[in-house]
Amino acid sequence: RPVEISLFFVSQTAHTAPYRAALVTMHSSYLLAAVAAASIPFSAAFVPTTPSLATRAAPSLSLSPSRAPLSALRMADDDKAPVGAAAEKYSKGMAHPEAVLGDGDIRKILPHRYPFLLVDKVLEYVPGEMAVAVKCISSNEPQFTGHFPDRPIMPGVLQIEAMAQVGGIVALQPPMAEPGQDFFFGGVDNVKWRRPLVPGDVLVMEMRVSAFKKRFGICKMQGKGYVDGNIAVEGDFTFALAKGDKKE
């Protein structure tokens, strides 16, 4: 292959013998250094040296026995089950009874709207007596941006509010409420929170009328909320029914 040779001449210094060095640069896979000897003697101590470069073979693309291709991964012992079988199994375990009041029905009864409507559906309802309803807690609810960013927990006051709305579904319908009456939160006692509620939990609430004085529009209810069959929140509620000021 063509070789380019560059010669460098070093003149005589004050305390050394003159010498001439020639550096040979080869355009190939090797770099060689050589010193051309001059006719004038010189000391070997001043001969510039160039470290040799070891020849490096290109890495092999073939797989060694220890790097054999991975065999196909098995996802589960029952990976031959039809698609949807696993989802169906879990869905049956999470299924709720058919709703007696859906979202549209709830909106006709309660004045609350997003983001403060905290009842998703009603599973059981006895006019003037009780109701069982569901609140599905989702991670995209606005309260979780601040309560808390790194550990979302449904605030206890919102759990109480959700139960109060279930009470409103009972109180705002006959035979308790009269046409044009509004529903107000009067008080809550003996509240106990048994466990934190987090996204993914399904809060099943029951509100039952314990006393009702129609003349004064005062209604008392007892409420309990459950998650996975375990008590999560409970309390005694007082509500007031009164004529609302509605503008024509």
From TrEMBL:
Keywords: Cytoplasm, Lipid A biosynthesis, Lipid biosynthesis, Lipid metabolism, Lyase. GO terms for biological process: fatty acid biosynthetic process; lipid A biosynthetic process. Its EC number is 4.2.1.59. Pfam families: FabA (PF07977). GO terms for molecular function: (3R)-hydroxyacyl-[acyl-carrier-protein] dehydratase activity. Gene3D superfamilies: Hotdog Thioesterase. It is found in: Cytoplasm. GO terms for cellular component: cytoplasm; membrane. It comes from the Eukaryota. InterPro entries: FabA_FabZ, FabZ, HotDog_dom_sf. Involved in unsaturated fatty acids biosynthesis. Catalyzes the dehydration of short chain beta-hydroxyacyl-ACPs and long chain saturated and unsaturated beta-hydroxyacyl-ACPs. PANTHER family: 3-HYDROXYACYL-[ACYL-CARRIER-PROTEIN] DEHYDRATASE. NCBIfam families: fabZ, PRK00006.1. HAMAP family: FabZ. This is 3-hydroxyacyl-[acyl-carrier-protein] dehydratase. The lineage of its organism: Eukaryota, Cryptophyceae, Cryptomonadales, Hemiselmidaceae, Hemiselmis.
